[in-house]
Design goal:
With 227 residues, the protein is mostly beta strands. Helices cover 0% and strands 49% of the residues. The N and C termini lie far apart (112 Å). The strands form five sheets. Strands 12, 13, 14, 17, 18 and 19 form a six-stranded antiparallel sheet that branches. A five-stranded antiparallel sheet has the order 2-1-4-8-7, with no helix packed on it. The protein contains no helices and 21 strands.
Amino acid sequence: NQANSQTYTLVIDRLPPIVGGSVISIGPQILKPDKDGIVTTVVGIDQRVTLAAVGGAIQISIRSVDGLSKTNSDSHIFALSRSSQTGLWSGILSFSKKGLHKLTVEAVDGAGNKTKRDFGKVMVQEAGQVLSEDENKPVRDAKVTLYYLETDTNSWVVWDGSSYGQKNPQQTDKNGRFTLFVPKGRYYLDISAPSFNIATSNIFTVEQTAPISQTIKLDRALKLGFG
């Protein structure tokens, strides 16, 4: 006796899931590691990680652990998703705590095989902050404007943050913080807030893509009282 079975699709699992090269970016800016393999970023800003993988991975995630922690109890997991057009995996990394963070990438394929490897280190710096000079307290809703030296015209212009996926000018949060991540160039900050005098930072030079972590203090404006 003979009979035909239903049609089945067989997948031969020849490789475990393997994660290849990766790129971390903020807008069009690529974050390159230093000589020690550490990438520098800033608290409160999103950066996109894009990577390639082979071996039929169906799930990839990145685990972040505080560099001082000896366990995974204080870890955070960032899930990645696969593009059907390019086949690349991507997701958003964001850190709320400054310091050194160790990254591990974990992948799972359709057969349940799991792989894990080190994915480098990230040094997260504190965001810029605006404080009151007299009380040393955060100034909320201060307007922070970043100016950039346009080399072609040798003139100062408002830095085009939207081209880099950031706001400029921007308002400080309840902790007086602002987040800016800029490319190579010369800059200065202009800060204003109600009841405070306008402050202007010194001109500073950024040699490579880096966050601005300055602390600016504002003097209170003088008021006249009658009666």
